[in-house]
Amino acid sequence: MLTAEEKKLIGRIWDKLLHKEDFGAEALYRMFITYPQTKTYFPHFDLHDGSDQIRSHGKKVVTALDNAVKSLDNLRQALSELSSLHAYNLRVDPVNFKLLSQCFQVVLAVHLGTEYTPEVHAAFDKFLSAVAAVLSEKYR
């Protein structure tokens, strides 16, 4: 799991991000473009860059990640309800959590520039992988 240093680094970078909802929307849009098969879960969405639906869902994604950042020591409990929603109601293929995580990393890299160090990349990779794993647990 995450080391104490990685947790501090994630918290510091996360707190530094302004307009996080834009990060969520951009990550979703990148996912839809890069992995078009993910669009099947959003047939009612306007999937154009900057659409209200992408911005709204991007905000939900970032709100969940914000909750996860605040609960790094207890991700399972923090994301339990969201995991159930995606597994039992929405029936989203859990591979999509990994795809969105990859897209979120790209968005971080683009916006953080030189602050997106190998250490930041590694810490966020571990964090987002843990989030994806927790969200996938109810599928088993």
What features would you describe in this structure?
71% of the residues lie in helices and 0% in strands. By secondary structure, it is mainly α. It is globular, with a radius of gyration of 14 Å. The chain starts with a helix and ends with a helix. The model has no long low-confidence stretch (mean pLDDT 91).
What is the element string, with H for helices and E for strands? Answer: HHHHHHH
Average per-residue pLDDT, rounded, comes to 91
Bulk shape? globular
- What is the count of helical runs? 7
Tell me the helix content.
over 70%
Beta content: under 5%
Q: Let me know the number of strands.
A: 0
> How many strands, which pairing sense, and closed or not: the largest β-sheet?
none
Derived from helix and strand composition plus strand pairing, the structural class reads mainly alpha
Q: Give the N-terminus to C-terminus distance in angstroms.
A: 21 Å
The value of Rg in angstroms is 14 Å
Unreliable parts: none
